[in-house]
Prior knowledge:
By secondary structure, the protein is α+β, with helices and mostly antiparallel strands. It has one domain (about 5-180): Jelly Rolls (Sandwich), CATH 2.60.120.10. The chain is about 50% helix and about 20% strand. It has helices at about 5-20, 20-30, 40-45, 100-105, 125-135, 140-185, and strands at about 50-55, 60, 70-75, 80-85, 90-95, 100, 115, 120-125. A hairpin with a 4-residue loop joins β4 and β5. The mean pLDDT is about 80.
Amino acid sequence: MTPSVQAISDLVMRGFVLKDVAPRIIQVASEILLFSGLNDEQLTRLASTFSVTTFREKERVFAEKEEPVNMYILLDGMVSIRMGNPTATIGYVKKGEIFGELSLLSSKNHSATAVAETRVEAGALNHLDLSELTRQRPDIGLIIYRNLAIGLGEKLLRSDISLRDQLLNKTLDKSKLKKKFKTTTKLS
């Protein structure tokens, strides 16, 4: 396609996306903390910047240390969030939740890997599209970034609690092992 035909094609496709996908994204987005406080007009404008993408079961959405491109709203399915080497699952994202939102704050590489645990359909918001939207509509950007800071704080707290619980369980297991070892050596 020539560049002018491609531009027209993109415009037509965006219209289809807005008509078919936007209502689903608006419905889910209106229930997500990140978009809390946006009015109907702002939600509609935001939804028009999303595209919809699908992932097969066990397909990687993004990888740890990979450059971020999109933030996702999970429209259907479940995604696991994994970290480390060896890889450990640290959480799950369910329908109506977001993931990859750190790409909204910075261009730093992903701190975790996201893998589709089932067939997944997600709304994808490209970092560049969000930047353009917030440039054109700072009222939307202000609400999103405020909510993003709140949401990240809550996720950090949940991660801290999970890590504390894991460390506590390991410590308890070691102390049981030491007691068992002491009992065994005394009997010998």
